[in-house]
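Recap from last week: sequence in, structure out.
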Amino acid sequence: MRIDLHTHSTASDGTDTPAELVRNAAAAGLDVVALTDHDTVGGYAEATRALPSGLTLVTGAELSCRLNGVSLHMLAYLFDPAEPELAAERELVRDDRVPRAQAMVAKLRELDVPITWERVAEIAGDGAVGRPHIATALVELGVVESVSDAFTQDWLADGGRAHVEKHESDPFEAIRLIKGAGGVAVFAHPLAVKRGQCVPESAIGELAAAGLDGIEVDHMDHDEDTRARLRGLAADLGLLTTGSSDYHGSRKTCRLGEHTTDPEVYGEIVRRATGAFPVPGAGG
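Predicted structure tokens:
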């Protein structure tokens, strides 16, 4: 089985619609794909309707968190999307996205970048607007060469000249909410230092003690030494280890199935979840 547990669609900051995403996942030879858009479940219905035969959909979300001033992302799998506490927290995070993005556009204009909010909103479409949409506008304007080049201290990285903080969940509270909604919590790309400051490894131990189920190990932003260190840490803490592409369509260079999760780990995630079940494809 080929299992990719971290992808994004146009419901957040990917470039594939949910329907395109599942069709592309099947074409890439995947057996299981997780849809984990940022702080939203808005792509579930379309992805489910379009799900091809032979592909299983794992519903999920990537929740924006912050610990001691450091941003981190928590992957939530197979939770009940209607559970009110977690739904309210997702809505709180999403509601802050538009004013935050507008404030970043204003900062960029103060830096003499001829960016407009109208264009950023057009790029985001119906998705949850975020920094990748602003980065795409910067690429269009020729300010940077690629989306990743926009995530520097010169521009949109944490603490950068045009960065604006947003509401982010406490990760301990996020774990509580995920588990309360019957889901499984996995810390996304925990040591992706190229993205900025990461929480210390001691914090991963504290999160594990609070109920964290696993950590994402095989990821494009982890080199081999980092992966080995994370595997050792996971073994010490009794955590599951996953692998994923973090696919965003054409917005990033990673490919669907570039990294995958061991079938036994996937089976354990499914076993632990009580909020939802994987959806088998029916030939949509």
